[in-house]
Amino acid sequence: MAEYRKYYRNQTLKGMSEMETDMMKGLPIPPIQKPYPAGGILIDLPPHEDLRPLSKVSAVDALANRESRRIYTDDPIAIHELAFLLWATQGVRGLIRDGLVTLRTVPSGGGMHPFETYVAVHNVSGIEPGLYRYLAIEHQLLLCRAAPDGLGAQLTEIANGQAYVGNGAATFIWAVRPYRTEYRYGDDSLKDILMSSGHICQNLYIACEALGLGTCATVAYQQEALDVFIGVDGKDEIALYLAPVGRPKE
After folding, report:
1. Confidence (pTM)
2. For 202-221, how does the pLDDT look when each residue is reduced to its tens digit (9 = 90+)?
3. Which CATH number applies to 2-246: 3.40.1280.10, 3.40.109.10, 1.25.40.10, 3.90.1150.10?
4. What HEC string does the chain produce?
5. What percent of the chain has pLDDT over 70?
6. pLDDT digits (tens, 9 = 90+) for 135-149
């Protein structure tokens, strides 16, 4: 904590005006989302306009009842419920600045939104088990790898034996591409990235409450193993946060 305070104090004294970021240098802005190969298997998701009737409780009740829920039934969740959760956490509401910046359902410094969402699907009606990446602009899922035997046991091991992480219907895994934020904010990027991950996961909690689902986020995992699990290098893209989703058991 002392080191972080020292870092924060130094950066505050330094000031953004003294930083020469790549944006200030006029370099090209990095892509909104990580490119994906042509010919990949894509799954269309229900558009967010069709998802409005899904909410079962008011915003007030969702906030009042929000809690971490770790015990789930074996019942599946539906594809439209997964689509709602993906839209609630990273949904694109519009493109601005010549299509280089997105407006989303969560805030992000300068609208940079440096996160990629991966979903380990275990038990979702209409989607085969496997690891997928959410393409927020297209509102589609991209298959990263099929896993007929499931991925839950692997995730439990990666999460230091926390069984609930692999026992839900799906597990959300967020990874950050730091340069997307560093391009604009330079050395101040760490603060925004960490705050933004909290915005995203809180939306997941509230959206789950709205649907009668449960979630519980964790940062207790083996970093290198989780990076390998979603297929990132741990440098240009880094796994940062994960949360299972399922139907809570009474």
Report:
1. 0.89
2. 999 999 999 999 999 999 99
3. 3.40.109.10
4. CHHHHHHHHHHHHHCHHHCCCCCCCCCCCCCCCCCCCCCCCEEECCCHHHCHHHCCCCHHHHHHHCCCCCCECCCCEEHHHHHHHHHHHHCEEEEECCCCEEEECCCCHHHCCCEEEEEEECCEECECCEEEEEECCCCEEEEEEECCCCCHHHHHHHCCCCCHHHHCCEEEEEEECHHHHHHHHHHHHHHHHHHHHHHHHHHHHHHHHHHCCEECCECCCCHHHHHHHHCCCCCCCEEEEEEEEECECC
5. 92
6. 999 999 999 999 988
